[in-house]
């Protein structure tokens, strides 16, 4: 029986060797798959981690950019309002200055017209006085000047007597 048992054992062992070989190959394959899975999982989790981190950074940058854009928009709006108000105020000041200058110009034109009228009156009076003085000067000149006396005498002589 012993022989029989050895034979069975050997047969069983022979039958088990291919199974053991398959088992070993399967275990090796499973070990490789587990290693590949671990590497892939690590790589994927590492990639996902960095991808999430990158996305988080991008989102934070976008929020920061959005905040800065909001601030810039507010500043532009304030500047626009201030500029518009400044332009309106400047326009009102220029209109007021123009009105004041027009009033001054009108006053100056009226004053110049009055002065021109007064000067015309003075010139007319002076012309009249000058004409009177020239007439009187000629009259005096004709009386006292010998040629003037001669002419007067000749006129008197040439005048027909009644």
From TrEMBL:
Cited Pfam families: FBF1
Fas-binding factor 1 C-terminal domain residues: 52-139
Domain of life: Eukaryota
PANTHER family found in the cross-reference section: FAS-BINDING FACTOR 1
Any one Gene Ontology cellular component term annotated for this protein: centriole
Descriptive protein name: Fas-binding factor 1 C-terminal domain-containing protein
Keyword Nucleotide-binding: no
Stretches of the chain forming a coiled coil according to its record: 116-143
An individual GO BP term: cilium assembly
Keywords from the UniProt entry: Coiled coil
